[in-house]
Input
Amino acid sequence: MYDLGKMKYFLSVEVVQNTKGIFISQKKYAKEVLKGFDMESCNPVKNSIVSRFKLVKDEGNTSIDATTYKQMGGSLMYLTATRLDLVYVVSFIIRFIEKPTELHQQAVKKILQCLKGIVELEILYKRRE
Output
């Protein structure tokens, strides 16, 4: 058995341990997601709730490639392990994964814009003193 030291990275979750406590984040993964969907140079927004869109299963709207939508949704779902502020909106857009439309894809891109603005945030588990 070997002691490999303190954990630093596990399943795309970055772990930093210091005197303040344990910090966890998915900064690197979030940046890869933004880059993978060509959103790394987008303008960040503060609110991930898509207020101007009324998302419903609309058969009349233009359908899009469901594979790309599933990839975007799955990537965002994985990010909710450390991005608890995105859980509600991500679970909302996943409802339309069966037959997504352009409106649904715009909502996902809005969430990615929000992610761009919060990519550096971390969760801190404080050390008891």
